[in-house]
Amino acid sequence: MNEKQTAIQIKQLEFSWKENLPLTLNIEKLDIQNGERVFIKGASGSGKSTLLSLLGGVLLPQKGNVEILGQKINNLNGTARDIFRSNHIGFIFQMFNLLPYLSVIENVTLPLHFSDQRKHRVLKNSNIKKEAMRLLSHLDLTDKNILSRSTHELSVGQQQRVAAARALIGSPEIVIADEPTSSLDTDRRDAFIDLLVNECNENKSTLIFVSHDQTLEHHFDRSISLNSINQASLIEQNKV
Amino acid sequence: MSIFNLAIKSILNRKFTALLTIFSIALSVTLLLGVERLRIESRTSFANTISGTDLVVGARSGSIQLLLYSVFRIGNATNNISWKSYQDIIHNPKVKWSIPISLGDSHQGFRVMGTTKDYFQYFRYARKHHLSFEKGKAFHSTYDAVLGADVAEKLNYKLGQKIILAHGAGKINLMSHDNKPFHVIGILKKTGTPVDRTVHVKLQGIEAIHADWQNGAPIPGFKLSPNRAEQQAQEPKTITAFLLGLHSRISTFKVQRNINKYKQEPLLAILPGVALQELWDMMGIAEKALLAISAFVILVGLTGMVTVILTSLNERRREMAILRSVGARPLHIFSLIMGEAIYLTVSGVVVGLLLLYLLLAIAQPVIETQLGLFIPIDWPTNYELILLSLILLSGAIISIIPAYRAYRYSLADGMTIRI
Known about the structure:
Chain A is α/β, with parallel strands linked by helices. Chain A has helices at 48-56, 78-88, 104-109, 116-125, 128-138, 144-148, 156-168, 186-203, 226-229, 231-239; strands spanning 6-15, 25-33, 37-41, 63-68, 71-72, 89-92, 174-178, 206-211, 222-225. The longest helix of chain A has 18 residues, at 186-203.
């Protein structure tokens, strides 16, 4: 795979939802190294979801480049970006991350159906079900009852750990977590982040953790405030 | 697990609405196929009202009118044909058999038909079935009568029953031939044709009851006893129509032409199959209307499905965002919704077929006894398979609407979860 040092590199990025609207994001430069665990701090409405969509290649910047693992994804077409995302990035969202009609194991292995690369990586050392079980057990979901249960019978904390296992399966180079702990209480929050960080270390995945909650900063190598790198928000703030 | 497995699981997750949708499609499929089977069967049965007869001959009028009174016992002949012409024509060596028909009397609203024994030997219906007797036998003497199945059933007549014929058709205020009763000597098996509603007597019987009549009314002060009348009943002077069977079907047109050009009397010979087809085509509008209604019911069923999927889409935007985040392309989302719709349509069609066979199994005997239609429980015909494929195709086409909408949603939403 790509051995470049930089996992994510953003240059002169400008993005607005519509042509005539003011910019939502205007980022001069953002570099994230391979294997780094980065905390991106931003209040709701600061454009963090937009940033994540740009990183995932679901949105395209009007100007500038988004380079992921050495690939300028804004130069790829839609399908290629979708494939690139499924191969290299695992996502965890705020809550209700799981498909209600799939079992826990099926939810965890879902990305493998869309990414042959991740599937091959799993099959190199193990089989799909074993790998899902391994990840779940690393995330403290060992109870056999849980695995056979329907996903909506799980607690929110358990659901988020299943989502984490799903993001990690097939060892994507980058894991992006968008407020994954906002619905957890403090104890569970720290436990979840510890598990996630450990698993990313083991996988050698770059972790990008986005939250408005500054108290979580200490779990990470580096903390970036979205407001400080986003010039668009500065302009907005000045206006107000 | 492919995207289509995902579709199945997603449907199973919403069992109740899925079942309702499948059921509504199934009902519409059952209706369409049921109506079509009835329609085709009644058409076949109609075309089979008369079979094996090469020509129907009567006084010159319209071909449909001739068919109506000679075969369906509807309406009246404008004119009779003379016995002499009849004899003349049937002595043509090309003619194998003939059945004379003499109409004009009735019993309790059922038409009375005077004919000869040849009727029981040569008359055929529905793919060359011969008439057969439920009870009794063919008429032999002048005052014998053979009843059609419906006549016997409606009037609850048994063998040996005495019946009085009335002059003319209708039920009330008819002058009756009350001094010359007939005996029921035979009852025919049900045929599903107008034969069931006919009282058959010998031509001599018709002559005998009119022996003391003149110009359609009894001669005042002149009454013959049944025995005297029987003795007086000679060859009839006229008959209403007759059916012809030829030795070779190739000569049909030639014989027809000869009859139509017959000098002594204006006659009309028709090919019953052609006239039946003409008559059926006149009723074709109703047939097409039925088909159109069934087609619309299918459309309603499919529209219901699309509505159900469309209304579910909004609450499923989260699901689509999750799928997108794990790498699903918008095209996958399109296929997911499309797949669900196709599964629902296919299930609807299969359940509809099962329902049809279930209904047929229950209703077949009822339809046979009540309508005289025998609906066979066969595998779907090619025509029905085409109909079913058309339904599936329409289902697939119409589900492009929700699938495309989901596609647009997933493009617009990306991985952003909107509630």
